[in-house]
Amino acid sequence: MTPTTVIALGRDAIEIVLMVSAPPLLCALVVGLVLSIFQAATQINEMTLTFVPKVMAMFVTLLIAGPWMLTTITDYIRRLYASIPGLIG
């Protein structure tokens, strides 16, 4: 196993992690931004006003994007397991 192979495996793993974590994080970012603008406009400073909608939006995002996320991770693991003989020898 060469250093180039190790770097390629690490890069692929980081890409998969970023792809899978992007939908819920982007959803939370957008919801948080909208709620912050709403709070600034109305001067309502309630912590539950930001927490509950973010959790609900992330839950809906996970329901919608969950199958894609699971398929992406499963495909990566299958490719990784299939490449083990080539990595060792």
UniProtKB/TrEMBL annotation:
Keywords: Bacterial flagellum, Cell membrane, Cell projection, Cilium, Flagellum, Membrane, Transmembrane, Transmembrane helix. It comes from the Bacteria. The chain crosses the membrane at residues 16-39, 51-70. InterPro entries: Bac_export_3, FliQ. It is found in: Cell membrane; Bacterial flagellum basal body. It is a multi-pass membrane protein. PANTHER family: FLAGELLAR BIOSYNTHETIC PROTEIN FLIQ. Role in flagellar biosynthesis. Belongs to the FliQ/MopD/SpaQ family. This is Flagellar biosynthetic protein FliQ. It comes from Niveibacterium microcysteis. The lineage of its organism: Bacteria, Pseudomonadati, Pseudomonadota, Betaproteobacteria, Rhodocyclales. The gene is fliQ.
